[in-house]
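User: Sequence for DUF1754-domain-containing protein below. Tokens please.
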Amino acid sequence: MAADDYEEVVSGGGLKLKGADLGKKKRKKKKSSLSTSMLDKDKSNYTELARSFIESSSSLQKQKLREEGRVTSEEPRESTSSSIGTPVNITRVEKTRAEIKFEETQKMRLLEKAKKQALKTHKDRVADFNTRLENQSEHFDIPKVGPG
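Assistant: Structure tokens for DUF1754-domain-containing protein:
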């Protein structure tokens, strides 16, 4: 065992991890800055597109409402948005008798449901749940809920 046996082995620094380049760091590429004039042009294009979109959508909505006969009044109001800056017409739509009655019945049903839930205790709800599970077929075999 002479020193000549180990001459072929190259020793050069510490251990290296697989897949990790510890010595080399990736540099982030600098983003090229756009001139302010190009940004201003883009902003003006977007505002023009937004104005045209709002005008076309409001005219379509008015047309649909006229066909249904539900338009009640139109009031021009100033928009608070700084990007658009043009007055926008807002149309008010009244609800029909059927829609009002439907909402009232929904509220009444919700109140009745809340009253039923308030009358039951937690123990009663668990018992009802367990009876419902017992009535199901064996395919839906779910363990009972409760102590024990």
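The chain has three helices and two strands.
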